[in-house]
């Protein structure tokens, strides 16, 4: 299922964050959140994911229940994606995984944020064959889909992409704040068992 709002709509952040939290609650057996922000810092248009990742790192870095992959300093892209996903699978086997990426679309949809309740298929606009990512994903339509997609990504307004990344970051921070107490409840019995064993009782 897909939900969408324009990023300039003041209701977009609360609307999409609420839907994201409700999606998590359909299967609340996860113990942590992993947010994978796909893209590169080489093209303005493709920097949406890394911009979101960098903003989230400033807000959520070091949180025991939330792990961010893909920032401007350490982007996740086609060349390192398989290695990154293998590492995430190994380290975070019970994580609720949210993917973030930029995409191209029809002209009248530029600026739309899409919440899609299925794994992300990265690289589709550029005809790349990459593995699906996440339990759910957010896409931002940053420009018009056409024959010269690489050029379109290169010449997209950076200011526009930064503004959109700020809205997506607010969505993910709010959803994380709503989901974390549920993760803590799921984690608590495990922690109590560990305490029980370590005390020898």
Structure commentary:
- With 201 residues, the chain is of the alpha/beta class.
- The chain has helices spanning 12-25, 48-60, 81-91, 149-154, 158-198; strands at residues 2-6, 32-37, 66-69, 95-105, 112-116, 136-144.
- Helix content is 42%, strand content 20%.
- Strands 1-5-6-4-2-3 form a six-stranded mixed sheet.
- It has a single domain (2-198), classed as HybD-like (Rossmann fold, 3-Layer(aba) Sandwich).
Please give the structural blueprint.
Blueprint: E1 2-6, H1 12-25, E2 32-37, H2 48-60, E3 66-69, H3 81-91, E4 95-105, E5 112-116, E6 136-144, H4 149-154, H5 158-198
Parallel strand pairs: 2-3, 2-4, 4-6
Antiparallel strand pairs: 1-5, 5-6
GO molecular function, one term: peptidase activity
Keywords: Hydrolase, Protease
Protein name: Spore protease YyaC
Please outline the major beta sheet: 6 strands, mixed
User: What is the third-level CATH name, the topology?
Assistant: Rossmann fold
Mean pLDDT: 87
Q: What is the N-to-C succession of helices and strands?
A: EHEHEHEEEHH
Contiguous helical run count: 5
Share of helical residues: 40-55%
Poorly predicted ranges: 189-201
Oligomer category: single chain
Overall strand count:
6
Head-to-tail CA distance between termini? 48 Å
**CATH homologous superfamily identity:** HybD-like
> How big a fraction of the residues is strand?
15-25%
- Please state how the strands of the largest beta sheet are arranged side by side: 1-5-6-4-2-3
Which architecture per CATH?
A: 3-Layer(aba) Sandwich
- Tally of distinct domains: 1
Keywords: Hydrolase, Protease
GO molecular function: peptidase activity
Organism: Paenibacillus foliorum
Pfam family, one: DUF1256
């Amino acid at each position: 299922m897909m939900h969408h709002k324009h990023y300039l709509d003041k209701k977009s952040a609360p609307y999409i964050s609420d839907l994201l939290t409700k999606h998590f609650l359909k299967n609340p057996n996860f113990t942590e959140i992993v947010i994978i922000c796909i893209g590169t810092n080489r093209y303005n248009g493709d920097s949406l994911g890394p911009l979101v990742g960098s903003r989230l790192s400033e807000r959520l870095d070091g949180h025991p229940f939330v792990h961010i992959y893909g920032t401007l300093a350490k982007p996740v892209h086609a060349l390192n994606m398989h290695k990154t996903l293998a590492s995430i699978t190994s380290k975070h086997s019970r994580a609720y995984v949210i993917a973030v990426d930029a995409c191209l679309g029809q002209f009248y949809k530029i600026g739309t944020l899409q919440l899609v309740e299925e794994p992300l298929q990265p690289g589709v606009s550029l005809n790349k064959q990459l593995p699906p990512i996440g339990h759910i994903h957010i896409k931002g339509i940053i420009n018009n889909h056409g024959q010269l997609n690489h050029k379109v990504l290169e010449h997209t307004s950076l200011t526009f992409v930064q503004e959109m990344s700020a809205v997506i970051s607010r969505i993910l921070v709010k959803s994380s704040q709503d989901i974390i107490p549920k993760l803590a409840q799921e984690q608590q019995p495990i922690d109590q068992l560990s305490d029980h064993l370590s005390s020898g009782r």
